[in-house]
C-alpha cells in the first residue's frame, strides 16, 4: 500500500459515522420510479450531496424522471471515467414481510436494511464519498470524472438512451464504470463485463365481456384458463423456452469467457440452502449455476392476476387474466426480435387474441474480456478487499450497458460492493456495511491508478 | 283466476311502493359472509321484517353466521312447506365496475341494481310479503310454513347440514321450496329439480423460500411456472377435465330428463352476444349450451395470484403462486372423492409439493322429475306469469339441496324470479322489478293450491 493510500484509508475510517449519517438521509427519501413516488425530491437531495464534495452538478429533466449529472474536470489531456448509477428503487411491497420499515434504514448484524440500500443508493453514494476523500487527502482528483445518476433504472431506463445519444460529445470518456449487483458469495470482489438485456411484457387474456357466475363454466370461456394454456406453450417444465427461434441469436461464450466462467468458485449446496430449494433448474446446455446465469436467457413469470384473489372463496368465472413476464436476453438477442417471435408463437398456438403490452426493453451487452483496463481494476480491487477478484463475462442482471458499449463505444466495467444476500427487489433488502466502506476504499485506489495507466501518450 | 287471486293481485299492486321501500332497507344492509361483514345486523333486520307479517321468528346461532328461522302454524293435519333461502351476499369487488354503489340500491330500466338484489335478498323477501298479502286478504295462511333463511350460502353452507341433522323433527315438511337462480332468458318461469355440488379448493405452489430477483430465473424454480404447469394438467384447451376418474360417477340423464332438457328453448346467438363471446366451449358428450349446463361438471379457475400484480413492472421471481378453483359436481360425484382424485393426480404428475386447501364442498342433488307436486307448481307459475313454465332436471348453480332431498327426504323445488341478466356474483348485479312482484303473485297462488293438493287423506 502506498503512503497516500494509507492516508486515504485513515480518512475514511475517521469519517465513518458521518458518512453513514449522510447515507441514511439519502435512504430515507423514497424514490419509487414505477409509481412516481419521491423522484424529484430524491434527485435534488442527491445533487446537493454531490455539490457538497465539489462535483459540479446539474439536474437534467427527461420526459419522466430527471438525471443527476455531475462533472469533475482535471484537464483536457487527463483520462476520463464515466461513472453511472441510479437513485430510483423498486416498490417495497409486500410490506408485511419487512422486519423494519423499508424507508427507515436500520443497522442489524453488520448490514443496513432498507429499500434501495444496495440497489443502488449506497453503491452510488460510494463515489460521492470517494471524491471527498481524494480531495481532502490529496487536494485533487487526478483525472476527469463524469457522473450520470439516472432515476429510471428500475423501469428499464427508457430515457437514458436518448440522453446518451443527444450528449455523445459531453459524455466522451475512456471507459464507463459503475457499482451495482453483488460481489461473490465467498466475499471475493468481482468485475462484471456484461449485463443481460430485457424484454418485459404483460400478456392479457380475455373471455366473456364481464366476469360471470362460475356455473356458466360449462359453456363460457375462462380467461384464466386461456392464459394458463398460453403460458404453458411458452415454457415447459424442462425449463427450455419453447418460443420458436428464441435461442437463435444466443452468442456462444468464447473459450476465454468459458474458462473465466469455469473459474468462478461456487458452493452450490450453500446456494441451495440460501434459496430454500432442493435443486437448481436444468440448464439448456449444461447444469452449472454460474454457466447458466452468465450464458442463458430467461422467460420468467413475474406476476399472475385473475379473478378473485382476496380471502375466502368466490365462485367467479374471470373475464380477464394477466401475466407479467420478464425475459432476460443475452448477446446477440434483440428485444424487438423476441417480441416478434413471441407474437408469432402465440398466434400460431391459437392465442392471437391474447394482447401483449411491452413495458420495457434493454439490449444485452458484453465488453471484450481482453480490455487493458481490466487488469488495473482487478489490481485495485485485490488491494482494497485483500482477496482475489473474480471476473464475470456477464451476470444475470439486466442493465443499460449497451448505451456505453454500443452508443458511446466505451468499454464498461461493473464493480459491485453489495453482498449476494442483499435481497434486492425483495423484502429486507440490505447493504453490507463493510461493502459500503470497501467501495470507498476501492474508489480512492482505482481512480488514481487509472489516471496513470490510461494517460495519453 | 279465482276471485281471491284477483283480490290478492290487487293488494300487491296497491302496496307496491311500500314493498319496495322495505326491500331497499334490507338491500342497504351489507351481509358479506366470506368477510364476516354485517351478518348479525342483517339477520336481526330480516327477523324483524318476518315478525312484522306474523311469522314467529327466532335467530338461531351457528358456529359462524346465524340462521333466521320462522314458522307459521295452521294445524297439525295441514300440509307443510319448508321455505329456504339465504340473506348473505358475495363480496362486491371489483368496485370500480359498478355503475351505482353495491349497497345503495337504485332502480334503472326496470331493474333494482345492488349486491344481493337477486342473489338472494329480493327472492327471499318475496315470501315475507306473500305471507302479508295472504293474511291481509284471506285472513289466513292455509297451511304450515317453516322458513330457514341462512347466512352462509355464499361460502358453501358449512353449518346448514349440522342444523338440519339436529332439527329433523322440527323441520318435517311435505316439500322444500325456494327461489334462487334465474328464470329463462325468454322470460318464461322455470322449476328447478336439482342443483350442482361443489368442491372449492385453493392450490398453492412454492419455489424459493422468499421472492428472488428474477435474474436468478436461470436456476431458481418459479412458483408461478410450477402452478401454470400443474393447472395445465387439470384441464386442456379441449375443455375436458383431465383428472383421472373425474367423470367416473357422473350419472347419465334419464330419458325423461334428457327429453325435458331438449325442450328448454334457447337462442344461443343471443346468449353469445350477452356473454360477448364468439362460441361456446365444446361439450364432453354434446355441444348444447343447456345440455352441458345441466349434465356436466366443471373445473373453473376462479382466481390466480402470484408475484407482482400492481401497476408498472417489477422483475421478481415469485416464491408463492395460488389458484382458487371451483369444481361444480353433478350426481353422483362426491366432493371427498374428487378431492382424493385431484391429490392423486397432482402427485402422479410430479406436483406432490403443491398444497391443496379445501374451502368448501357441497353434495349434488336431483329431485325425481315424476313427483306429484311438480304439476301444481307448474300450474301456479303458468297462471301468475301468463307463460308456460320450463322444467330443469337441474341447473348449473350449486346449492345445498341434498340437505332436503337426502337428509330430510323431502322433494325439493326451486322456483326463481330473477332474470338471466341478473349478473349475480359480478358487478352491477340486479333484480328485475317485475320478477319481484311476479314472485309474490306466484306465492299467493302456490301455497293455497298446495294446501289443497297435498291435503292428507
Strands side by side in the biggest sheet of chain A: 1-2-6-3-7-18
What is the averaged pLDDT score of chain A? 95
Portion in strands of chain A: 15-25%
Extract low-pLDDT stretches of chain A: none
Q: Looking at this structure, what is the CATH superfamily of the largest domain in chain A?
A: Zn peptidases
What coarse outline of chain A follows from CA principal-axis ratios? globular
Oligomer: homodimer
Number of domains of chain A: 2
CATH class of the largest domain in chain A reads Alpha Beta
* Extended strand count of chain A: 19
Distance between the termini of chain A: 27 Å
The major beta sheet of chain A can be summarized as: 6 strands, mixed
Using CB atoms under 8 Å apart, which protein chain pair has the greatest interface? A-B, 86 and 86 residues
Question: Which class do the helix and strand fractions of chain A yield?
Answer: alpha+beta
Structure notes:
Two copies of one chain form a homodimer. The first copy, chain A, has 457 residues and is α+β, with helices and mostly antiparallel strands. Chain A folds into two domains: 3-195 and 364-453, 3-Layer(aba) Sandwich (Aminopeptidase); 197-250 and 297-362, Alpha-Beta Plaits (2-Layer Sandwich). The first copy, chain A, has 13 helices and 19 strands. A six-stranded mixed β-sheet of chain A has the order 1-2-6-3-7-18, covered by helices on one side. In chain A, helix 4 (117-138) packs across helix 13. The radius of gyration of chain A is 23 Å and the shape is globular. The two termini of chain A are 27 Å apart. The relative contact order of chain A is 0.19. The interface between A and B is large, with 86 and 86 residues. Strand 12 of chain A pairs antiparallel with strand 12 of chain B, so a sheet runs across the interface.
Amino acid at each position: 500500500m502506498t503512503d497516500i493510500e494509507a492516508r486515504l484509508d485513515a480518512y475514511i475510517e475517521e469519517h465513518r459515522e458521518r458518512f453513514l449519517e449522510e447515507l441514511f438521509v439519502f435512504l430515507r427519501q423514497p424514490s419509487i420510479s414505477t409509481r412516481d413516488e419521491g423522484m424529484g425530491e430524491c434527485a435534488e437531495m442527491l445533487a446537493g450531496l454531490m455539490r457538497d464534495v465539489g462535483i459540479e452538478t446539474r439536474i437534467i429533466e427527461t420526459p419522466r424522471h430527471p438525471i443527476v449529472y455531475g462533472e469533475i474536470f482535471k484537464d483536457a489531456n487527463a483520462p476520463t471515467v464515466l461513472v453511472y448509477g441510479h437513485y430510483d428503487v423498486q416498490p417495497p411491497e409486500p410490506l408485511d414481510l419487512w422486519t423494519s420499515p423499508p424507508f427507515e434504514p436500520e443497522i442489524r448484524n453488520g448490514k443496513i436494511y432498507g429499500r434501495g440500500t444496495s440497489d443502488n443508493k449506497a453503491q452510488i453514494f460510494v463515489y460521492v464519498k470517494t471524491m471527498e476523500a481524494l480531495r481532502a487527502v490529496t487536494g485533487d482528483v487526478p483525472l476527469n470524472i463524469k457522473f450520470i445518476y439516472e432515476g429510471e433504472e428500475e423501469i428499464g431506463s427508457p430515457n437514458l438512451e436518448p440522453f446518451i445519444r443527444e450528449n455523445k460529445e459531453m459524455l466522451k470518456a475512456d471507459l464507463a464504470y459503475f457499482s451495482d449487483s453483488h460481489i461473490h458469495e465467498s466475499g471475493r470482489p468481482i468485475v462484471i463485463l456484461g449485463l443481460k438485456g430485457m424484454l418485459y411484457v404483460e400478456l392479457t387474456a380475455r373471455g366473456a365481456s364481464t366476469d360471470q357466475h362460475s356455473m356458466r363454466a360449462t359453456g363460457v370461456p375462462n380467461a384464466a384458463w386461456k392464459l394458463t394454456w398460453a403460458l404453458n406453450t411458452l415454457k415447459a417444465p424442462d425449463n427450455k423456452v419453447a418460443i420458436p427461434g428464441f435461442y437463435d441469436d444466443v452468442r456462444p461464450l468464447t473459450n476465454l469467457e468459458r474458462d473465466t466462467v469455469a473459474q468462478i468458485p461456487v458452493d452450490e449446496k450453500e446456494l441451495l440452502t440460501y434459496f430454500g430449494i432442493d435443486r437448481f433448474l436444468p440448464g439448456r446446455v449444461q447444469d452449472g449455476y454460474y454457466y447458466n446465469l452468465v450464458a442463458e436467457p430467461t422467460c420468467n413469470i413475474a406476476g399472475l392476476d385473475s379473478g378473485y384473489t382476496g380471502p375466502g372463496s368466490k365462485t367467479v368465472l374471470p373475464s380477464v387474466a394477466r401475466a407479467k413476464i420478464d425475459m432476460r436476453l443475452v448477446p446477440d438477442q434483440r428485444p424487438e426480435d423476441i417480441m416478434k417471435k413471441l407474437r408469432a408463437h402465440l398466434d400460431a398456438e391459437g392465442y392471437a387474441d391474447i394482447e401483449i403490452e411491452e413495458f420495457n426493453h434493454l439490449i444485452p451487452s458484453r465488453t471484450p474480456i481482453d480490455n487493458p483496463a481490466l487488469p488495473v481494476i482487478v489490481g485495485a480491487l485485490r488491494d482494497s478487499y485483500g482477496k482475489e477478484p473474480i471476473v464475470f463475462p456477464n451476470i444475470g442482471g439486466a442493465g443499460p450497458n449497451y448505451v456505453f458499449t454500443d452508443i458511446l463505444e466505451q468499454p464498461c466495467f461493473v464493480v459491485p460492493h453489495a453482498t449476494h444476500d442483499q435481497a434486492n427487489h425483495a423484502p429486507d433488502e440490505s447493504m453490507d456495511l463493510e461493502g459500503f466502506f470497501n467501495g470507498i476504499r476501492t474508489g480512492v485506489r482505482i481512480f488514481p491508478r487509472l489516471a496513470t495507466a490510461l494517460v495519453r501518450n
